[in-house]
Design brief:
Order of helices and strands of chain A: HHHHHHHHHHHHHHHHHHHHHH
Radius of gyration of chain A: 27 Å
Largest sheet of chain B: 6 strands, mixed
Distance between the termini of chain B: 48 Å
CATH superfamily of the largest domain in chain B: P-loop containing nucleotide triphosphate hydrolases
Structural class of chain A: mainly alpha
Oligomer: heterodimer
Distance between the termini of chain A: 37 Å
Helix content of chain A: 55-70%
Helix content of chain B: 40-55%
Number of strands of chain B: 10
Structural class of chain B: alpha/beta
CATH architecture of the largest domain in chain B: 3-Layer(aba) Sandwich
Number of strands of chain A: 0
Chain lengths: 542, 269
């Protein structure tokens, strides 16, 4: 019980610099060899063994474990830097040049890692169970998917044929309406920051928010109609140069949707919040399914552009990448930068006034509010921040897949992201990244590889073929993890201590109360006085 | 009388058909120590919850230094200058003592989202200020050695003190203590009494407490308000309240107040 938040002393851990570098060299060599088709062909039986899907999945997993070990092991700083930078910037792209599926997998892992980091803010730090998180991912994906594909031209054509009385005047009205209502919302929220809201302020705020929505709709509609004559020139969607603008826009759009969904929802707690977010997540998916004009419904949108940066393409070409691989390499680099940014934002927010407020809300909402933490505002920031990460990754996902449909944004995805967060360790940044990597590897490589490898083995009955039982194996792994290590793979220090604290108390009660007097344990009430049971039903009415 | 820091006028709270607090008026003079007492279920905590904005009163006004508080959210009430502790300790259990107090500084720090992300000077100044405040407050209540200990690992009495330190970190004008001595042994209660006096004398914070420990209430308070069934039945200085027949009746029952209780006991003595 001493110095609780100091990490366990690592001095006793042996220095593993040499082991780390050796591991890096061996796994890199295996990865490079096993993904080089020509080389494998010349190697005869060894080559065939390396081609085995389960062996291949193992190679990839071991290689990615490099980065984990560089983080975990005690080693010289240069070795850790060499291993992490070497793995991510040199070996992976080099192997990906021979086998693009490897680049695809890495991007997918990092997309999920970013999603898990975003959900971690909402669930792990602020303690708000959100089962509809994938909705924000969808918002980001469709933001770029619609304008960066031939869909945009079709929308323009439709509005060109059905202007519905919209003209440049409408644009002016829309802009003015948006500006006026947004300004009045700001003014009203300033007004009620220090004084009690009245019926007038409450209703005028609601009216103004309706006005903002109407203004934005009018503006967008007018823009679409005015752009309609250009439809033919935009047959393949907006110029790829707009990618960067929409990268910013997708962050903003997802955050805005996060606030919109959050406003009515965040008054609820716990189970109710989980159910209503689940419902709203489905609403977004059903909207994507039914708004045929914009989303092409269940057919999906394709092909979606990616940005093309001339100097980057030139560099990729010089490194021996094929032109059809440029966009993957570009997205790989982009997603690396993005996850670095997201991680920085996460760490910095965690150790700030806002991060403390989130954890305070998770621990005790009533006490947090009594300490001056505005609940609604703080929860909305958590929701919007988490949503914005999902938004930007949604856009990268759309550009990588070149195809999106509502199928990519089903409830199962939300659950999968949640399981990454819980498996990795709620509230722990390295933990949720590891959780995302493990779950994605299991789902995309290891379990399918296992199924493929065992598909033709005759003595395994068809019904028991691991290929058929992937979900069952995955479920069993989750159950085992939760039983053996409920705090997650790389637990958050706070949560681990919390669980340990409970363990200690259980131990004490198991030995009878002999130890209870000596230990200064928190929940032992001194005898002789029964506190009054005046019920402190605080926080219920607001 | 230099003036009242808090003026509560005619507040009533009705839950469905139950009137938990009925038309209570109470003034708390600046830099005083006052108590609210009453039997279990008298509506004391409901009364506190209305002052701190957790419940909105059905009727009545609450003014802090002239400013109307009814309708404000609890965090706005805290920002206005009322801090509180809870009857059942409500510390942030996964945080250290220091972090608990830093949360108390929340409404006084102004660094926002972008300040935190960009690590601006405003952010660093705010963090430094919060850490300093935490150290000062921990030393003030005598918990300096527990600075980086998880709040749940503190001894019970110290958890109560930490809650007071956390409330004081919001730099309140008035602090409400809901049964601060509940579950404490006599020595801890003596410590607490000294601490509450220092809160008033050294920090100049007005103190209002709900308490069942009569020795503590009678020796500490300058003014006592007695609630029973949601209604104010008496108020005044400790000796006045102690001798008020209605108060004795509320606490001991009708017969006892009339002196029957003693008569019955005599044969056994």
């Amino acid at each position: 019980m001493t110095a609780a938040l100091q990490q366990k002393p690592r001095a006793s851990a042996p220095d593993r610099t040499i082991l780390l570098v050796l591991f890096f060299i061996v796994t890199s060599a295996f990865l490079l060899v096993s993904h080089n088709g020509d080389l494998l062909g010349q190697m005869g039986p060894v080559g065939t063994a390396l081609k085995n899907p389960i062996v291949e999945a193992l190679m990839v997993s071991l290689f990615l474990a490099n980065i984990l070990f560089a983080y975990l092991w005690k080693a010289a700083p240069w070795a850790r830097a060499l291993v992490s930078v070497g793995s991510l910037l040199f070996v992976l792209p080099a192997a990906g040049r021979e086998d693009t599926s490897l680049l695809d997998l890495s991007i997918q892992i990092m997309i999920f890692a970013a999603l898990a980091l975003g959900l971690n803010i909402v669930v792990g730090l602020a303690g708000l169970l959100d089962l509809g998180y994938v909705a924000f991912f969808a918002v980001g994906a469709y933001t770029w998917g619609i304008v960066g594909s031939p869909r945009f031209a079709e929308i323009l054509k439709y509005f060109g044929e059905n202007p519905g009385g919209t003209n440049s005047g409408t644009l002016a009205i829309g802009l003015v309406l948006t500006a006026v209502t947004a300004a009045s919302m700001l003014y009203i929220s300033r007004l009620t920051a220090r004084t009690a809201p009245t019926a007038a302020t409450t209703w005028s705020f609601r009216l103004a928010s309706v006005g903002v929505v109407a203004g934005v709709i009018l503006t967008v509609r007018a823009l679409l109609v005015l752009l309609a004559p250009q439809a033919d020139g935009l047959a393949n969607g907006l110029n790829a140069g707009f990618f960067w603008l929409f990268l910013a826009l997708s962050i903003f759009a997802a955050a805005a949707v996060g606030v919109l969904i959050g406003l009515p929802v965040l008054k609820l707690k716990g189970d109710y919040l989980a159910i209503i977010t689940l419902g709203l997540g489905e609403v977004i998916r059903v909207l994507a399914n039914n708004l045929d004009l914009y989303s092409a419904g269940s057919q999906g949108i394709t092909p979606i552009k990616s940005a093309s940066v001339p100097w980057f393409d030139a560099a990729a070409g010089a490194l021996g990448f094929a032109p059809d691989q440029y966009y993957l390499l570009f997205l790989y680099a982009l997603v690396l930068v993005m996850i670095g940014l997201i991680l920085t934002v996460n760490v910095r927010l965690d150790r700030s006034r806002i991060g403390r407020a989130w954890i305070a809300i998770r621990d005790d909402e009533v006490a947090a509010q009594a300490m001056g933490v505005p609940l609604m505002q703080t929860k909305l920031i958590a929701f919007a921040t988490g949503a914005s990460f999902a938004g930007v990754m949604g856009m990268i996902f759309a550009a990588k897949q070149q195809f999106i449909s509502p199928e990519s944004f089903v409830l199962n995805q939300s659950i999968a992201i949640l399981s990454m967060v819980i498996l990795g360790g709620m509230g722990s940044f390295p933990g949720v990244i590891l959780g995302a990597a493990v779950v994605t590897l299991l789902n995309l490589r290891i379990l399918p590889g296992l199924g493929e490898a065992t598909a033709n083995i005759s003595w395994i009955p068809q019904q028991a073929n691991p290929g058929q039982l992937q979900r069952l194996i995955f479920g069993a792994i989750l159950v085992a993890m939760m039983l053996l290590r409920p705090e997650g793979l790389l637990p958050n220090r706070r949560r681990q201590l919390e669980l340990h604290h409970d363990d200690n108390q259980e131990d004490e009660s198991a030995q009878g109360n002999a130890g209870a007097l000596g230990t200064a344990s928190g929940d032992v009430y001194s005898a002789g006085y029964a506190p009054a049971k005046e019920d402190d039903k605080a926080g219920g009415s607001r | 009388m230099s003036g009242n820091i808090l003026e509560v006028a005619g507040v009533t709270k009705v839950f469905g058909g139950l009137t938990a607090v009925n038309d209570v008026t109470m003034n708390i003079p600046e830099r005083s120590i006052v108590s609210v007492i009453g039997p279990n279920g008298a509506g004391k905590t409901t009364f506190f919850n209305m002052i701190t904005g957790i419940y909105e009163p059905t009727r009545g006004t609450i003014r802090l230094a002239g400013r109307e508080l009814v309708g404000l959210r609890p965090d706005q009430v805290t920002e206005a200058g009322i801090a509180r502790t809870f009857q059942n300790i409500r510390l942030f259990s996964t945080m250290t003592s220091e972090e608990n107090i830093m949360v108390g500084r929340h409404s006084r720090l102004k660094s926002g989202f972008l300040d935190a992300v960009l690590r601006t000077k405003k952010f660093h100044d705010g963090e430094q200020e919060a850490r300093d405040a935490a150290r000062i407050m921990l030393d003030f209540v005598g918990l300096g050695k527990w600075r980086s200990e998880l709040a749940t690992n503190l001894p019970y009495g110290d958890q109560r003190k930490l809650e007071i330190a956390r409330a004081l970190a919001t730099t309140p004008k008035l602090i409400l203590l809901d049964e601060p001595a509940a579950g404490m042994n006599p020595r801890e209660t003596e410590d607490l009494k000294a601490l509450i006096r220092r809160v008033r004398d050294e920090l100049g914070v007005t103190v209002c407490l709900i308490e069942h420990d009569m020795r503590l209430v009678m020796t500490l308070s300058e003014h006592i308000t007695v609630l029973d069934y949601g209604t104010k039945i008496a108020e005044g200085k400790p000796h006045q309240v102690r001798n008020d027949p209605r108060v004795m009746e509320a606490y001991l029952g009708r017969g006892a107040a009339a002196g029957d209780y003693g008569k019955e006991e005599r044969p056994h003595a």
